[in-house]
Amino acid sequence: MKKVLSFDVDQTLNVAKTPIPDEIADLLIGCLKAGLKICPISGQKFDQFLIQIVDRLVERGATKEELANLHLFVAQGTQYYRFNAEKNDWDQVYSFPLTDEQVAKITQAIETAAKELNFWEEDKLQPGDEIIENRLSQVTFSALGQKAGTKEKYAWDPDCKKREAIVKRAKELAPEFDYEIGGTTSINAITPGMNKVFGMTHLLEELKVTKEDVLYFGDMTQPGGNDYPVVQMGIDTITVRSHEDTAYALRGILGFTNNL
Questions:
Q1: What does the pLDDT look like over 6-44, one tens digit per residue?
Q2: pTM value?
Q3: Residues 118-151 as b or e (16 or more Cβ within 10 Å = b)
Q4: What are the structural domains, with CATH classification, of the chain?
């Protein structure tokens, strides 16, 4: 019997960069009520976890006691937050930020690569948006920015070929960093080892569980995808293509759990 359900976010719990839908929120609350630990782990920053997941759970009726079973592994798990019921707020347990020099070098490499390949589309940004974002423990390239519409994002690089080309060139320019493809238009740049293996290893330590206790859901489980490191760890993984796939699996898990 699994004790922990861990999830990628975009394309796994939601439509990219949108709040999780009602059904997913209700299913996650059901899992929290059943005593399962729910652990989203994604390249996104903490504020996006709140907007896309936590706020929706609260809107759908999650209690403080249930939120205590929710663990947020931000920026691929290089930052970890857990809920403090007494304060009714989130505590940061750890963070492993990049240095200013590392951020600058990654930013230059990705921008140069995207411009050389004609994939730098600054003219399509919405006001106040940016293509490259410093997320403290990683730098993220989002080809159309964070505010672009879902339709535009899905259409930009559906086969990942544009991002694969950017990653290849950026790796030539700054080989000391790793680059992972995620979401619909994103590349996450990190120092070696600071990927989801790092995050999931810390998850096991912080929650005092084993790999056998964890079931992971992700849409980028292929080699080069940002969920692939979890597969390589030997953690049981369900590959999904949408939040509908995740909902289908969660209904089965809840049905089994509630019948124990």
A1: 999 999 999 988 999 999 999 999 999 999 999 999 988
A2: 0.86
A3: ebbeeeebeeeeebbbbbbbbbbbbbbbbebeee
A4: 4-95+194-258 (3.40.50.1000), 100-190 (3.30.1240.20)
